[in-house]
Structure formats: structure tokens, C-alpha cells
Amino acid sequence: MAAGEPVFVALGSNLGDRDGHLRAAREALAQLPGTRLVAASGVEETAPLGGLAQPAYLNQMVLLDTELEPHQLLAELQAIEQRRGRVRGDRWGSRTLDLDIVAWGDRRIHDPDLIIPHPELPRRDFWQRELSELARI
Predict the structure, then answer these.
(1) Residue 100 among the catalytic residues
(2) Do the beta carbons of residue 95 and residue 86 sit within 8 Å?
(3) Residue 14: which CATH number?
(4) pLDDT of residue 51
(5) Catalytic (active site) residue 98
(6) Is 111 a catalytic residue?
(7) How does residue 95 score in pLDDT terms, banded at 50, 70 and 90?
(8) Is-above-0.85 flag for pTM?
(9) Distance from the first to the final alpha carbon of the chain
(10) Which domain covers residue 51, as residue numbers?
(11) 8, 33, 42, 81, 133 from 48: Cα distances, Å
């Protein structure tokens, strides 16, 4: 595989086998074409965001090296979510699996389907911790 670009993807789950959903997501990400899973942060449990009553989340950040373009990767992430039973409902609602592109090298994208860096990055302390952990690897 030729060298791609570094991409940070956040994984989250608060329904069903949370550990299993994160593990399956890591495995699926590692199998994407032109993509290599470089590193993964530790998994941490966090309170849900958005004020809805729901179970706690397990969260993790992974670093990918990919030759995919951003919208291609977004489509792949949504397909992985769907295979793990993700149902899109309330914006801040519970989910079996949530995969978010958090940062992509020096790229800046702002369109109706995709914003990079992720607009919530400055407000999510757990993402900051996970990115910091991956920066030390």
C-alpha cells in the first residue's frame, strides 16, 4: 500500500455489546481498501452527551492511514455502522455504533455531508485525551 493520509476516527457505542461493537469496527476499518489501522487509543467510558436519558458510552479513537478520499471514507464508516445495527434517529440518541471522522491531516472540509475537523472536537474532552494518547504512540 502506498502512503496515504493520517485520519483520526472516533468510535463510540452505548447499546448492546459495546466492546464487541468497537472491536468489530476496528477490524472493519483495518480491512478497508487502501487503509491501514496504525494505532488505537485506550477505551474509556463516558456519560452521554445531549441531555437525553441513555446508557453510558464506550469511546475510543483510532489513527488510520488511508488512500481513500474523505467522502469515500464517510460512506465506508456509515456502512460499518449499519452492519452493526445503527439506526439513525435522534441526533444525540443512543446507538450501537457511531464512527466520526475527527481530523484528516491538514484538510479542511465544510459541506452539508462532512465537516473536517469535526465541529465538536474542541468540546469533547475525551476526544482530546484520546488524540493526545495517540500523539505519544
Answers:
(1) yes
(2) yes
(3) 3.30.70.560
(4) 66
(5) yes
(6) no
(7) confident
(8) yes
(9) 21
(10) 5-135
(11) 21, 32, 18, 18, 22
